Amino acid sequence: YLPPQEGQPKEGEEPTLFIGIVENLDISKNCDTDAGLAISNMTLAAWDKGVGSCIIGACNKPKLSELFGLAENRVLHTVVAFGYPTHKSKITDIKDGDVKYYIDDNGDYVVPKRKIDDVTKYL
């Protein structure tokens, strides 16, 4: 949602590590839970050491799978970028259905999210 000059890292700000979560189709056709747990553990452990992360699900997975030389029974599930943050991010409630994130006056990212009560149901 951000213009390239604002939404992309500048020289020296690039991630220092990318990790691809790879799905083995011989084991399961759906590894979302396992992938989510792995991603959660990696990102929380990194944050504890002052390393930020960006979970990238919207990427050209077939092209990246080919680039990485993944076997036929392997597909890229998600990519996680790790690096040292140059700004802060904060969450705000979605207003009028607008999910677009933006940069505030301090240069920090503001990310609209749905309220917990809107995405959960207590039984």
Task: Describe the overall structure.
The protein has 123 residues and is an alpha+beta fold. It folds into two domains: 14-86, 3-Layer(aba) Sandwich (NADH Oxidase), CATH 3.40.109; 87-123, putative fmn-dependent nitroreductase like domains (putative fmn-dependent nitroreductase like fold, Single Sheet), CATH 2.20.180.10. Helix content is 26%, strand content 28%. The chain has four helices and six strands, in the order αβαβαββββα. It has helices at residues 4-7, 32-48, 61-67, 116-119; strands at residues 17-24, 52-56, 74-83, 89-93, 102-103, 109-113. A three-stranded antiparallel β-sheet has the order 1-3-2, with helices on both faces. Strand 5 and strand 6 form a beta hairpin. The longest helix is centred in the first third of the chain and has 17 residues, at 32-48. The model has no long low-confidence stretch (mean pLDDT 92).
> Would you identify the regions where 5 or more consecutive residues have pLDDT less than 50?
none
Q: In DSSP terms, counting alpha (H) and pi (I) runs of 4 or more, how many helices?
A: 4
Q: What is the string of helix and strand elements? A: HEHEHEEEEH
In CATH, the homologous superfamily of the largest domain goes by the name NADH Oxidase
Named at the architecture level, the CATH assignment of the largest domain is: 3-Layer(aba) Sandwich
Biggest sheet overview: 3 strands, antiparallel
Multimerization state? single chain
CATH class of the largest domain: Alpha Beta
Give the CA-CA distance, first to last residue. 36 Å
Radius of gyration over alpha carbons?
17 Å
Q: What fold name stands as the CATH topology of the largest domain? A: NADH Oxidase
Which shape, going by the Cα principal axes? globular
Strands, count? 6
Task: Supply the number of structural domains.
Answer: 2
